[in-house]
Design brief:
The chain is an alpha/beta fold and 148 residues long. The chain has a single domain, classed as D-tyrosyl-tRNA(Tyr) deacylase (D-tyrosyl-trna(Tyr) Deacylase, Chain: A), CATH 3.50.80.10. 20% of the residues lie in helices and 39% in strands. α1 crosses α2. The longest helix is centred in the last third of the chain and has 17 residues.
């Protein structure tokens, strides 16, 4: 399971011109799922997202986690994180089938909410427009395979 985590001062997602998710300070998270991902992979990413200390403390150092700053998450399903770009027309065969991807995407959202993180979402499978202000910029790449 992969996630692109961007520290944002604001982010919103639109479907067909209608805003369906919007946050202020927090993380915009693009989440990709592959065939053999499991709840353990999702739990690893949830732990990293909720615990990542990249927000400024009183001294201006990146030392605070999401909860300490009252931040939120905008979670977007992103199957293209498993694209194979070796050809000019990328292959997406490494992306999980929709049923598994949706299940694990929703699982991540539920586990973040269980940690009292405010989570807004995109619409699984929809064409979305994502607008954000990357703060820093701070962009981190997480991959559950790195824990193994």
């Amino acid at each position: 399971m992969r996630a692109i985590v961007q520290r944002v001062s604001s982010a919103e997602v639109r479907v067909e011109g209608r805003t369906i998710g919007k946050i202020g300070l927090g993380f915009a998270v693009l989440l990709g799922v592959t065939h053999d991902d499991s709840a353990a992979d999702a739990d690893y990413l949830v732990d990293r997202i909720a615990g990542m200390r990249v927000f400024a403390d009183a001294a201006g150092k990146m030392n605070l986690a999401l909860a300490a700053v009252g931040g939120a998450v905008l979670a977007i399903s992103q199957f293209t994180l498993y694209a194979d770009p070796r050809q000019r027309r990328p292959s997406f065969t490494a992306a999980a089938p929709p049923a598994l991807a949706r299940h694990l995407y929703e699982y991540v959202i539920s586990r973040l909410r269980a940690r009292d993180v405010t989570v807004e979402t995109g619409e699984f499978g929809a064409h979305m427009e994502l607008a954000l202000v990357n703060d820093g910029p701070v962009t981190l790449i997480l991959d559950s395979r790195e824990r193994r």
